[in-house]
Design brief:
The protein is an all-alpha fold. It contains five helices and no strands. It has two domains: about 60 residues; about 55 residues, Tetratricopeptide repeat domain (Serine Threonine Protein Phosphatase 5, Tetratricopeptide repeat, Alpha Horseshoe). It comes from Streptomyces pratisoli.
């Protein structure tokens, strides 16, 4: 729940930022000189890229959450079996052991989105966010039949 709230707060702040930057771009374009129009168009490109990135990220999160809900309904969500430090952080050796198990499962069933989902969770637990995201994208593509 905390993650959802922080995501929506961050998205709202970004939207406000995009509106402010976009208004500055429009103001520059309205000034009418070649230089200000050029800068105005360049400034307007930033919010467009930002909105596109925010939209794609939101789609990714929604699809990943839908997969998690489906996997939970099947009883297939990975169980949190990781050892933790006294401060609550995941023990690296424990995460590596679970990761090795998840990777082997995925290698045995490369066409199963469930294995890729669990592998993405293992990557995340091992603090490898880029690979976690790619594995989740693969799980989504397999689930949607676009892989």
């Amino acid at each position: 729940m905390r993650a959802k709230v922080s995501y929506f707060v961050t998205a709202a702040v970004l939207v406000v930022y995009f509106v402010l930057v976009g208004s500055r771009g429009v103001m520059l374009i309205r000034h009418g000189t070649l230089l200000t129009v050029t800068f105005g168009v360049a400034v307007l490109i930033l919010p467009v890229i930002g909105v596109w990135f925010l939209w794609k990220n939101t789609q990714f999160v929604r699809k990943a959450n839908a997969l998690a809900a489906e996997l939970d309904a099947e009883g297939g969500l990975p169980v949190d079996e990781l050892a933790r430090t006294p401060g609550g952080r995941i023990d690296r050796d424990s995460a590596d052991a679970v990761f090795a198990q998840r990777r082997a499962e995925t290698e045995d069933s490369p066409g199963d989105w469930r294995c890729w989902f669990r592998l993405a969770v293992a990557y995340h637990d091992a603090r490898d966010t880029p690979r976690a995201r790619k594995a989740m994208q693969k799980a989504i593509a397999l689930h949607d039949g676009t892989a």
